[in-house]
Amino acid sequence: MRKSNPELEKEIRTKTLELLQEKEPYEIGMRDIATQCGVTATSIYLYYKDKEDLFRKISLDSLSILSEYMQKRIDKAKSPKTKISEALKAFRDWCFDNPKTALLFMGKISVDTNADKETLESYYTCIRTGQKLLEDCIEKNIFKSKNPKLDTNIIVYGLWGCIQSILLERSDIEFWNKSIKYTDRFIEMALTALES
Length: 196
Prior knowledge:
By secondary structure, the chain is mainly alpha-helical. It has 10 helices and no strands.
């Protein structure tokens, strides 16, 4: 059996992400990826069972980077309420700074619904961070929620809907160049709803 080559595996993911910035996932085959990496398709199959497996690994890599970005912003915030606001703004800012990658892992690359529980949980790292922050605020009587997991999902995916409407230019044209103001308003509305 061949030994794995971490450098090649990293290169495969990097080059594949570059391809995904240029083409839709369905337009990319393993041979395209192999050509981009200067290896044979067989070499890629040593690391990934198929292109969907590779795409999902890239998606999880991106989510991990986003999670770290959010955590740095959260760590700088002082109050529990500010931590939630900063987490949402960090999620928003990262998506606007990395629009093609955000669109990939938030919609174009499917989740492996047959994955083990730990892998599935990795897809929800940002949600779980928000949920913990919300639960802390509830414990301190800052916010109210009968179901923090549900509320966190609604807020994060509602914010994603606002972000996506800007990225895809589906919002009112007036807001295309006011993405921060537009999404700040959603964050304000969401946090206000948790106060009542």
